[in-house]
Amino acid sequence: MRIVREPLKIQKLVSKLPRPVVLVPTMGALHEGHLALVRRARKRARTKGTVVTSLFVNPTQFGPKEDLARYPRTFGRDSALLREEGCDLLFAPEAADMYYPNRSITLVENELSKVMCGASRPGHFDGVCLVVSKLFNLVQPDIAVFGEKDFQQLAILRRMVRDLNFPVELDAHPTVREPDGLAMSSRNAYLTQEERSQAPIIYEAFLSAEQKIRAGMASSTKLLDWVKQKIQSAPLANIDYVTLVDPNTLEPLRQLRSPLLLAAAVFFGKTRLIDNRLVP
Predict the structure, then answer these.
(1) What are the E-state strand segments in the chain?
(2) How many CB atoms sit inside 10 A of residue 85's CB?
(3) Does residue 250 lie within any of the structural domains?
(4) Same domain, yes or no, for 166 and 262?
(5) CA angle 82, 157, 111 (to 5 degrees)
(6) 33, 41, 71, 93: least CB-packed within 10 angstroms?
(7) Domain with 208 in it: what CATH number?
């Protein structure tokens, strides 16, 4: 596995990479969820193509009170895991190399980011769009693999690819979960033992809600109220939001109809966990 840190160097290198080039963008602190994306990329690249993983803790998607400074950075472990999974090229730049000190061009998403995590984290998805567009320009991938756990991010990036005519196929991988249902996340490492034991309540609530939908419940208000009560039955859970939206437009649904996305963000202590359940 080759490691490249300079954006200019990877720009010169990409024209020589065997196609298809499949990109897996990450911020490091890799877990089984990330590695599942790399395995998916390896399958899509086949034996002759190239798997590129980026490892970059992107400062533009963190708010002033968020955890940029404490975000885990485990480059040695991450690079070893990627090598084992068949990654061909690791792109691991520094922030100073990715962003000029006098940069003045930004990207703004002004529709899909108004709800859900976008409402709680203003500017977050603008930072995501900016860094992913830079990665697309630098790596020139044919395919990029993202996880469905960050469903709003995936929807926004699909819109960005459409609106800005990026010649990139976005491949979505299902959420990877712990045995008790908790969605895998680098932030799970911040949970105390007691918080960790209660965190699976989010997914438990989603599964029960899906059963209610399939049994004929029609009121989105009643369903959301029930899901909130279920999550709040965990003493340490502090709900940021729980919502039902159209999975394509992310518009809130007043009536239950398929397909629909049930999504939530919940704090356990200072750790904010997100999860979702798509009901086709």
Answers:
(1) 2-4, 21-26, 50-55, 89-91, 143-147, 169-173, 237-245, 260-268, 271-279
(2) 20
(3) yes
(4) no
(5) 150
(6) 71
(7) 3.30.1300.10
pTM beyond 0.90, yes or no? yes
pLDDT digits (tens, 9 = 90+) for 231-252: 999 999 999 999 999 999 999 9
Of 151, 173, 195, the residue that ends a domain is: 173
15-42 tens-digit pLDDT: 999 999 999 999 999 999 999 999 999 9
Residue 207's domain comprises 186-275
Alpha-helical regions (H) of 29-74: 32-45
Domain's final residue, options 119, 147, 173: 173
Residue 59 DSSP one-character state: G
**Amino acid identity of 22?**
V
Question: What angle do the packed helices 151-164 and 124-139 form, to 10 degrees?
Answer: 60
Residues 136 and 236 in one domain: no
Tell me the pLDDT band of 67, cut-offs 50, 70 and 90: confident
280 domain residue, yes or no = no
Q: How many structural domains are present in the chain?
A: 2
Q: Mark whether 173 is an active-site residue.
A: no
Q: In this structure, are 90 and 192 located in the same domain?
A: no
Question: Average pLDDT of the chain?
Answer: 96
Q: Find tokens 């990329």 and name the residue.
A: 41
pLDDT above 90 for 64: no
Q: Which of 166, 84, 156 is nearest to 124 (CA)?
A: 156
Residue 250 CB: number of other CB atoms within 10 A?
Answer: 22
The predicted pLDDT at position 94 comes to 96
- pLDDT of 218 reads 84
Q: Which of 31, 34, 124, 173 is catalytic?
A: 34
